[in-house]
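Quick start: read one record
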Amino acid sequence: MTEPSSLPVKRSCPFDPPDEYRALRGISPLAFDVSPGPATGWLVTKLSDVRAVLADARFSHRNDLVALAVPPPFPMDTYTPEPAAPGAFPKMDGADHARYRKLIAKYFTVRRTRELVPAAERIAGELLDAMATRGTEAELVTAYAEPLATRLMCELVGVPEADREELLHHLNVVARMRYSLEELIAAITVVGGTLERLVDAAFENPGDDMLGELARTGELDRPELVNLAWALVGGGFDTTTNMLALGTFALFEHRDQLERLRADPALWPNAVEELLRYLTVSHLGASRAALEDVELGEQVIRAGETVVVALPAANRDPERFPDPDRLDIGRVTQGHVAFGHGVHQCIGQHLARFTMQVGFEALFTRFPALRLAVPQEQVPLRDDMLHYGVHALPVTWSAAAVVSEKQG
């Protein structure tokens, strides 16, 4: 048995998981600086083991049981995790989790999210028009990836335009791995206050958006709907934004794959799946706590121990994906765990897929000569954030090569 190690986070390549994962294929001891249970647990990197843990009800996602693989950047000597607040369903199990998830599942079916494609196309077109009129350079995260993902989610949930910028700013603070306690308290206060105000308005005068419809059901009280909204906007803003920006960066550096897409746009849906597998922006994995002793492979996980499933490593498992470190938009991608697996699998995955398909295809159709405006090594990476990606992506293009919306 090797000594417990910390969770790997640093990358030598912008698109590959940390190098340590190659040597950790299987089940390895992991140290936890802050935990409600044992100070050591387990890191799981093999795809079959990851899927087994995420599908097994003997492994809990409860907030009060799971240890922190990456501790906050301030003293936590008196840390005592509490059960998830009512409505914060991602950190619940069993009937509580199922009840809240069922209430919102209808908004995220394939059929319902496909109906949002015209809205995604409209927003993408407006953002690309604005880029084209401002010259031949842009910072793609703030000009395109972030507003495309956030505007679509805000329109679905019911966040007015006047509240979006401030909400996004403070959610970005919460998404850091490094912040002061004062910064965290300020961000939580603003986000919580904004959502409370929006939920109060939804109960008093419910509209046709998600908050209004959920308020009308009578099945949720105000605190429950506030916490549910937290879960939706907190998860929906960050992940799709980072996939759009990091995916664009990856295609810049894999021009052969981009040329395949130009020659055959029908490949875009599978390309999105391959980018999800290849990049896996949920780079800290997903954590579960064993409710009882569980045998996993040749290892016994003891009750109370936390298991971190390394999603980036699992998606590069050579037993499932031949030549896994190669981006191949034509490969068979079934079985990847970029959205997790089991009952806690990302509820917004279909919306994310459609948003990425629309976003990537619209971007590279309107700007066929789009390229990085700086050397690759100057692109700032988000290895200091809860979700991986790029902090900024400076791009440039030739004005003569821009395709008008009408032509596109």
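Strands lie at 27-31, 40-44, 59-60, 137-139, 286-290, 294-296, 299-301, 306-309, 371-372, 394-396.
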